[in-house]
From TrEMBL:
Entries under PROSITE patterns matching the protein: GNAT (PS51186)
Keywords associated with the record: Transferase
GO MF annotations in UniProt: acyltransferase activity, transferring groups other than amino-acyl groups
Name of the protein this chain belongs to: GNAT superfamily N-acetyltransferase
Biological source species: Nonomuraea endophytica
Record PANTHER family: FAMILY N-ACETYLTRANSFERASE, PUTATIVE (AFU_ORTHOLOGUE AFUA_6G03350)-RELATED
Lineage: Bacteria, Bacillati, Actinomycetota, Actinomycetes, Streptosporangiales
């Protein structure tokens, strides 16, 4: 996969929101978590947000937490998710972080574990939008 990972710009916000809402992982029982949610230009400007040139994937590192990570459905299984995680860990190390916290979407937990995260607990539901427990994981950065 030759997609370049670059710092997102505020003008990318609409495309990142569209990618996020197109994710089949958030249809059905998990759809409420994204209802009305948008990646805004202000969010992109304020945080470490990285995307690919064709908006096939992106992530957001907010302080010591991986806040968002999405890969287009048709790009899953190509290694792009792994590349985004590796890039995120490089950014975290560069920021002096020794660990990155992830509150995972339940179906994504296996992916994070394959990428080297360790499960450390569970995040409680936060009704009305989140009515299910979510795995809490951490990545060590090697810093």
């Amino acid at each position: 996969m030759s997609e370049t990972i670059r710092r997102a710009e505020p003008r990318d916000a609409g495309a990142l929101t569209a990618l996020m809402h197109a994710s089949s992982a958030y249809h059905g029982e998990y759809s409420t978590i994204l209802e009305g949610y948008q990646v805004t230009a202000g969010y992109v400007a304020a945080h470490l947000v990285f995307t690919t040139d064709a908006h096939l994937g992106f992530y957001a590192l907010v302080e010591d937490e991986l806040d968002l990570l999405f890969v287009a459905d048709h790009s899953q299984g190509t290694g792009l998710g792994r590349r985004l995680i590796e890039h995120m860990l490089e950014q975290a190390r560069g920021a002096g972080l020794t660990r990155v916290r992830v509150i995972s979407h339940p179906p994504a937990e296996a992916f994070y574990l394959r990428m080297g995260a360790q499960r450390v607990g569970t995040s409680s539901p936060k009704p009305p939008r989140i009515t299910w427990e979510r795995p809490e994981l951490t990545f060590g950065t090697g810093a």
